[in-house]
Amino acid sequence: MRENLRRPGFLPLYAFTLVLWLIVMSPFAVVVLGAFLQTTFLGLSTEQWARGGDGESLFSVKWFGYVWGLYRGTLLFSVKLALLSVLLCLLIGVPGGMVLARRQFPGRDLLESIVLLPLSLPGIALSIGILQAFAIVRGEWWLILAGHLLYTLPFMVRMVMDALRSFDVAALETAARSLGAGYWQRLRWVVLPNLRHAMVAASLLVFCVSWGEFNISFLLNTPLNQTFPAALYATYTTNSFQVSSAATVIFLGVVVPALMAIQWLGGGRGVKLEQGV
Asked: Which pLDDT value is given to residue 6?
């Protein structure tokens, strides 16, 4: 760091980066503070909150209880969707990625493109397609899960394929076969351990994408089956800034740890895991 400080032009670049970071983080800071502080302290006087005017202190956590009581069902429903998305992606995406990465067959490249296609389609197009394809069961909660799966499955498949292509699995399996290992033994002791890092990272990414998915969820929502991002949108349009901020903090409280875990797995620890297999 001291050597970098001696380099010409480093300090202006560092200051510019710091300013950009402050610009990006300032909206998050305002939202987080808005969940705990009176709005007049933040310069938001339109809601007619005055410090001490209603007998309340400047700092309060009551809005979290209000949001939990109001949206507890939608929050738990979103957690359920995210966990099921992870489970289904593991059950479908891992074998699918292994087949696409290890087998040569006619139409493989086309199939790989089809699997990744949902990432390039707008959510409204996928939602309309799902509604029309399953019109007879419209309103069922698993339609929302199907939409989440379309968006999250490509991440699992892609990461599994990249992991398999990053090391010579064929040579490892050949060595294991020469030692008398059968297919399931090779899968258990050779292939899956080398996929462990990719599977964990992909599972966290799938959870984050499903937890924050809005477009499909908003269009497929029903009064009985509403996701938390859709409820968060409704909160910003119908409730006070403090209630909306508290809901946003709850949303970030779930997704930020998962994103931090992805960053951690993408660093040195992930390399050590692979090297230790």
From this structure: 59
Tell me which amino acid residue 192 is.
Answer: L
The confidence score (pLDDT) of residue 184 equals 80
CA separation for the pair 84, 95 (Å, rounded): 17
Distances (CA, A) of 33 to 42, 51, 244: 8, 15, 12
Residue 264 phi/psi, 5° resolution? Answer: -65, -45
C-alpha span between 244 and 236 (Å, rounded): 5
Which of 147, 139, 127 lies closest to 82, judged by CA?
A: 147
pLDDT band of 9, cuts 50, 70, 90: low
Over residues 146-176, the pLDDT tens digits come to: 999 999 999 999 999 988 887 766 677 778 7
Contact yes or no for 174/186 (Cβ under 8 A) = no
How far apart, in whole angstroms, are the C-alpha atoms of residue 246 and residue 95? 40
Q: Are 253 and 61 in contact (CB under 8 A)?
A: no
pLDDT tens-digit series, residues 177-230: 777 778 788 877 788 888 888 999 999 999 999 999 998 888 888 878 889 999
Characterise 136 by phi-psi region: left (phi > 0), alpha (psi -120 to 50), beta (else): alpha
Domain 71-276 indexed as CATH 1.10.3720.10 = yes
pLDDT at 81: 95
Look at the alpha carbons of 21, 24, 26, 30 in this order and tell me if their dihedral is positive or negative. negative
Please list, in sequence order, all residues whose beta carbon lies within 8 angstroms of the beta carbon of residue 155, skipping any fewer than 6 positions away.
89, 93, 202, 205, 206, 209
Task: List the domain boundaries for the chain.
Answer: 71-276
Measured at the CA of 177, the angle between CA 172 and CA 183, to 5 degrees, comes to 95
